[in-house]
Design brief:
This protein has a domain of 57 residues. The protein is 45% helix and 0% strand. By secondary structure, the chain is mostly helical.
Length: 107
Amino acid sequence: MTIGGSLVLIALGAILKYAVTAKISGIDIGTIGVVLMAVGVVGLIISIVWLLNQRRRLTAPSVVERPRYAEPVAPRPVARERVVPEESYPVAPVERTVAPDPYDPRV
């Protein structure tokens, strides 16, 4: 239940308790109003406690534990790329053909 819902229950209970004067056989409207006000107050307290708990959790500093190593980890050796000059291998020219577009009106 949110704070708004709690306030609605409190207001509805107060209206039933203090403003409604109708009589229904077997039902006491004033008692229903008191019950609604009590449920609204309990819901309001729970909502405020939950909201404060969430705010505290968001603003609390987070602690990050990092493992400590006995020795520093040595960096891995970097692999070097072998460069081959272009004259050492033959390159055949690539012949490209494009298929005609069946939707082209110029074809």
